[in-house]
Design goal:
With 1025 residues, the protein is of the alpha+beta class. The chain folds into six domains: 21-141, Pleckstrin-homology domain (PH domain)/Phosphotyrosine-binding domain (PTB) (PH-domain like), CATH 2.30.29; 166-242, Recoverin, domain 1; 244-317, EF-hand (Recoverin, domain 1); 335-392 and 404-461 and 470-511 and 536-545 and 552-573 and 591-658, Phosphatidylinositol (PI) phosphodiesterase (TIM Barrel); 704-720 and 728-832, C2 domain (Immunoglobulin-like); 865-1021. The protein is built from 29 helices and 35 strands. This is Phosphoinositide phospholipase C.
């Protein structure tokens, strides 16, 4: 009888609008179908209901007689959520099809037996869990005490003891106060317009039409002849429309069913769920006062459901780490160590051939944080250069209704907006086709408009071999503008000279000439391009006055191939570092800073065929990728494909919205949006190994597991241009993970059919992230439609900027603008344990694995005996460190499992659960905590049930594993450090050792690669905690 519950839940909508425990109990008394899971792995469908006197749970049909097909509430010990009992854990593969979010278990009896159930949806499971936990926390209402009639529903009284709970009374009094403020006559009634406006004020984002419709329904149900609203009707409408079930269920879980949080409850929530280990009681009081709307709650230090909802929707609970809202990275490293926000011809409207120039595009690019701006310049009339491309002699023929834009006006706009968003340096990428005379005019404009802001390195010092010194840092260049363009050789004399100007076309010739290739990321389009042969470089007369202003010389792809050839030659005599060590023969290099500009096709080919060499090249040289010339519609390539290859500047058409620009914004929303983001450490270290094409673990980087629970969405707007589709939308959420190939994955929630603008999803997804520093997460909300799924909103964020816990995801529109009050509500957990593969929708339980399933990091053989002997010494401590870490993690996971909590639970939550079990009915504790050698141990004081003894045994095992880890970690780390130091000493002598072993050419290159791999592993793996 095992059916696919995911399909059942697809169209399942909330069966009851829940705003109180009374609503939950009323639903349970009405009953519903649940799936009963037996230890034998059999699944039975049964109809479960709560007795009218709340004393027991019954089910039917059953082979048992009526007295046996029941479970007394008084015998229940606890209610667990998810698949956390032995029945689920020991039969995991058989129950994979049952959704984690809809599963719950009732633990009962002295021997802690479990009744394992699965509801039709997460909503229904939450109602049962909330109602049962409320009964366990309030035994006085069981068996008829305080029970009134439930037939009229919660609005007519319901259960007196429940309706009188602290949280609901506080909320009722607050709404009464708000109603009294708008009831000017004091008659207890207000007009419908006033009632609607008041609710919209108290609950920002709710649609006025939705509120008005609810009041109309109330009037019809009561057959009222007037549209005036009473206090009771106002409260009923507000509680029904403005109570978020997801927030209510969470609140009840945290408050031990009091329906409000005190400072201690809130502090525990901040510590265990939100990752705020330094939360204080004083800080919680301050938070209560800021977000609790009722005066009574603020005075008593209580946070009700409305205040809790306001807090969860506040900036404090947004997904993006607030630390990233300001510059928080080291800005004192060379420019080539950063990704740089780059625009491509953002001054053009429409297409790339006939598009007219517009200053608004430059303004928008600078306001969005771009730090590299491209300007195309051509000769204009009367000796004044113009902004744009391919202007002919008759300029008016191209755009008769629009006057051309002069380069001076463009420079003035750039100067005005250059540093309003970011103070860090602006690179002005100049592509000019001007005559020497107009170049001279342009040079005068540059000096006059920018003045001291224009950075012109005079007498640039050079290192050994004639190479320019390292690029300055963003901090050193704050407030400066650097011109990137063609440059005359420093020894050139005369007023102008000739330089080669590569054509801006795909491939750019070189070794790829004549090859057939597709645009990276768009292979499915079937567009095959042939790389043209390397034509003779176009010669350009360059005026020396303009050349002298250039801070970074622009070069083409030939500079990469030249350096690569030089490195291969130099490798025969140099240590395996990147770049080649100073004392060795060097490849030809210009004595000034350069930027290599690649077409997207050629850059894509390099990331696939020469990923290590491209990363090596970018460790020292700024590299830029421009969109293909076939993108006449100003579309954009996928920037992630080039970032993973180390490319610092991926130029995008900022005027073209879409997924590619979303990823760009997600990457550069971090670090204060300043336009500079540090590249991963493996792309910056002198001796390191990284391949952009890796399909597995990155050496030395422990993989992390990302678990995302998409709980709900709120205030979703209709898709743009969907007016004919009616008011109802069918939304679903897509989660995209972008990164190295091993990380790329995509999953989606079910469609919330006919669920309008506030759908509930309650679905959990898991991703394994092998390279966290490169990963980007994108949420996309779409409207499911048989014609085509319409875009509603999205949000993109860097993996390392994610905040754990319950988070609000603000949705952005197609152009990147915030959608008012529209958001997703999610729960984020990041662990360093390996998950069950990438992007699988599964439960949060962790299955224990023996040592046989462990993955130990391996070091590579270099083929040089003395080097391999050194690295061989690290195998023992690396394995020992992995065992120490895995034993500690595995024992902790077992302890959580025995406590009936998911793997994502915090230890503080486990201790609280254990304390509840150890407490006798008389209130005495069944165990005491003592310190043994500085470690907390639990000693039983009384005879405990077997289930509780298992938990204590798991606790002892966890403490022993942690003791082993702490006691041995320093010694293991020192042994790894020693091998690392010896390896780096051999690095200087590597060429001679390789020559002694007879390694040449390809074999030597392989030895170099293995050496850098091993050094990378040892450097990152040194901490074993």
């Amino acid at each position: 009888m095992q059916t696919d519950m995911h399909a059942d839940a697809k169209s399942a909508a909330p069966l009851l609008q829940v705003s109180s425990a009374a609503d939950c109990l009323a639903f349970m008394q009405g009953g519903c179908e649940l799936k009963k899971i037996r230890p034998s792995s059999r699944v039975y469908c049964r109809f479960y209901m709560l007795d009218p006197d709340l004393s027991c749970l019954r089910w039917e049909p059953s082979k048992k007689d009526g007295d046996r097909a029941r479970l007394d509430v008084s015998s229940m010990r606890e209610v667990r959520t998810g698949k956390s009992t032995e029945t689920f854990l020991h039969n995991g593969p058989l129950f994979e099809h049952l959704p984690e979010e809809a599963a719950f278990s009732i633990i009962h009896g002295d021997d802690y037996q479990s009744l394992d159930l699965v509801a039709l949806s997460a909503d229904v499971a939450n109602i049962w869990v909330t109602g049962l936990r409320y009964l366990l926390a309030h035994p006085s209402i069981i068996g008829g005490a305080g029970v009134g009639s439930l037939e009229g529903g919660p609005g007519d009284g319901g259960i007196a003891a429940v309706e009188g709970s602290l949280g609901s009374k506080m909320r009722s009094d607050w709404l009464k106060t708000e109603f009294a403020e708008v009831d000017e006559d004091g008659y207890g009634i207000v007009s419908e317009d006033v009632a609607v406006a008041t609710i919209c004020k108290l609950c920002p984002g709710i649609r006025e039409a939705k509120v008005r419709l609810r009041f109309k329904e109330i009037q019809r149900s009561k057959e009222k002849l007037t549209s005036h609203v009473t206090l009771e009707e106002f409260q009923e409408a507000f509680c029904e429309l403005c109570t978020r079930p997801d927030v209510y269920f969470l609140l009840v879980q945290l408050s031990q069913d009091r329906e409000c949080l005190d400072p201690q409850d809130l502090r525990l929530f901040l510590e265990t769920e939100q990752g705020l280990s330094l939360a204080t009681t004083e800080g919680c009081w301050d938070l209560l006062k800021r977000y609790e709307p009722s005066a009574q709650g603020r005075e008593r230090g209580l946070l009700g459901v409305d205040g809790f909802a306001r807090y969860l929707q506040s900036p404090e609970c947004q997904l993006l780490d607030p630390e990233q809202l300001a510059v928080c990275q080291d800005m004192n490293l060379p420019l080539c160590h950063y990704y740089i926000s780059t625009s491509y011809r953002s001054y053009l409207l429409d297409d790339q051939v006939h598009g007219r120039a517009d200053l608004g595009g430059l303004i928008r690019a600078l306001q969005s944080g771009c730090r590299c701006l491209e300007l195309g310049v051509t000769d204009g009339p009367e000796g004044e250069p113009l902004l744009g491309v391919n202007y002919g002699p008759d300029i008016s023929r191209h755009h008769p209704h629009h006057a051309p834009v002069t380069i001076r006006s463009a420079l003035e706009v750039v100067n005005k907006y250059a540093f309003l968003t970011s103070q860090y340096p602006l690179l002005l990428y100049l592509c000019q086709r001007c005559s020497p005379s107009q170049q001279c005019t342009m040079a005068h404009h540059l000096k006059k408009v920018f003045g001291s802001r224009l950075y012109t390195p005079e007498g640039l010092s050079v290192g050994l071999g004639g190479r320019a010194i390292t690029l300055p840092s963003p901090e050193q260049l704050k407030g400066r503008i650097l011109l990137v363009a063609k440059k005359l050789p420093p020894e050139h004399e005369g007023s102008d000279g000739e330089v080669s100007e590569e054509e801006e076309e795909i491939g750019g010739g070189g070794p790829l000439a004549g090859r057939r290739m597709t645009i990276p990321g768009e292979e499915e389009l079937g567009v095959v391009l042939v790389v043209p042969p390397p034509s003779q470089p176009r010669k350009l007369r360059l005026h020396k006055e303009l050349s002298d202003l250039v801070a970074v010389a622009r070069t083409g792809s030939r500079s990469f191939y030249t350096q690569r050839a030089g490195y291969k030659k130099a490798q025969q005599q140099s240590p395996p570092s990147s770049p080649v060590s100073p004392g060795s023969p060097l490849p030809p290099e210009l004595p000034y800073w350069t930027m290599c500009s690649l077409g997207e096709g050629e850059a894509g080919r390099l990331t696939s065929e020469s990923p290590e060499e491209l990363v090596m090249f970018t460790k020292r040289t700024l590299t830029r990728v421009r969109p293909s010339s076939v993108r006449l519609d100003s579309s954009n390539p996928n920037p992630q494909g080039y970032w993973k290859g180390g490319v610092q500047l991926v130029a995008l058409n900022q005027q073209t919205p879409g997924a590619m620009l979303d990823l760009h914004r997600g990457r550069f929303s971090q670090n204060g949006g300043c336009g500079y983001v540090l590249r991963p450490a493996v792309m910056r270290d002198e001796v390191s190994y990284f391949s952009a094409h890796t399909h597995g673990c990155v050496p030395g980087v422990p993989p992390q597991t990302l678990r995302i629970k998409v709980i709900s969405a709120h205030n979703l707007p209709k898709p743009q241009g969907s007016g004919a589709k009616g008011e109802v939308i069918d939304p679903y959420v897509v989660l995209e993970l972008h990164g190295v190939p091993a990380d790329c994955a995509e999953q989606r929630t079910r469609t919330a059919a006919q669920n309008q603008d506030d759908p509930m999803f309650d679905e959990t997804f898991e991703f394994q992230v092998n390279m966290p520093e490169l990963a980007l997460l994108r949420f996309v909300v779409l409207d499911d439609d048989y014609i085509g799924d319409d875009f509603i909103g999205q949000f993109s964020v860097a993996f390392e900027c994610l905040q754990p816990g319950y988070r609000n995801v603000p949705l952005l529109g197609l152009a990147g603008d915030p959608l008012p009050h529209s958001s997703l509500f999610v729960h984020i957990v990041i662990t360093n344990r390996r998950g069950g593969g990438k992007a699988q929708r599964k439960g949060l339980s962790v299955r224990r694995g023996g040592r046989r399933g462990r993955e130990y990091v391996s070091l590579r053989h270099t083929g040089i005996k003395v080097v391999d002997e050194v690295f061989k010494q690290a195998n023992g401590p690396l394995k020992e460190g992995t065992d120490l870490r895995e034993n500690a993690q595995s024992s902790t996971a077992t302890f959580k499992e025995q406590c009936g909590l998911p793997a994502v639970a915090k230890l503080k939550q486990c201790i609280q659960s254990l304390a509840t079990r150890l407490q006798s009915p008389e209130g005495n504790m069944g165990a005491t905590m003592v310190l043994r050698e500085g470690y907390p141990c639990l000693e039983p004081l009384i005879s405990l049930p077997e289930a509780t003894r298992k938990v204590l045994a798991a606790y002892d095992t966890m403490i022993a594993a942690q003791k082993q880890l702490i006691g041995n970690a320093d010694g293991v780390q020192e042994r790894i450090d020693q091998v690392y130091r010896e390896g780096m000493d051999l690095h200087e002598d590597f060429p001679r050792l390789g020559e002694k072993e007879g390694l040449k050419g390809r074999k030597l290159s392989k030895a170099v690669e293995s050496f850098t791999w091993n050094i990378t592993v040892l450097k990152v793996r040194r901490p074993v905690y």
